[in-house]
Amino acid sequence: YLESHECVDKIYHPFMPSFPQYELALKQMKSPSGLFSIELKAETREEVEKFCDSLHTFLLACSWGGHESLIFPICGLDDSENYKKNDMPWNLIRFNVGLESPEYLIADLEQAFQKYLK
Predict the structure, then answer these.
(1) CB neighbourhood size of 69 (10 A)
(2) Which residue, among 116, 115, 113, has the nearest Cα to 2 in the 3D structure?
(3) 67-71, 82-86, 108-112: which has the minimum mean pLDDT?
(4) Nearest to 58 by CA among 117, 110, 109
(5) Are 93 and 37 in contact (CB under 8 A)?
(6) What is the DSSP letter of 26?
(7) How many CB atoms lie within 10 A of CB 86?
């Protein structure tokens, strides 16, 4: 779904065949996780925030490991010293997929993308 979406510039997940280290991931890991990142096609921090704020099922959090689906926009760190020390793209959004059904999560993403596109 995300790989072909017009609002997504890049996806980072080691079990996607298009990922540069896909073969290495297959050799080193038994199965994928629900943790991945995307680069949102955005021109401003406000656009990233609008997309993230439009999500209802994905909760904003920086701690992984619960049962709920979570997001964390890296641009939320831009005032911190930790952000200034890394080279992560400012439009990067980390996702952790929880126990919700894929259809439910895709519906949430789609409605947020529709608001983002307006």
Answers:
(1) 21
(2) 113
(3) 82-86
(4) 109
(5) yes
(6) H
(7) 9
Listing DSSP states for 44-103 in one string gives SHHHHHHHHHH-SSSEE-S---SSS-EEEEGGGGTTSHHHHTS---TTEEEEE--SS-HH
Residue 16 CB contacts under 8 Å (≥ 6 apart), including other chains: 3, 22
| Confidence (pTM) | 0.87
Name the phi and psi angles at 21, rounded to 5.
-110, 30
Backbone φ and ψ of 11, nearest 5° = -125, 135
Q: In the prediction, which pLDDT does 82 show?
A: 56
What residues have CB less than 8 Å from 63, skipping those under 6 apart? 70
For the chain, strand residue ranges (E) read 8-12, 35-40, 59-60, 70-73, 92-96
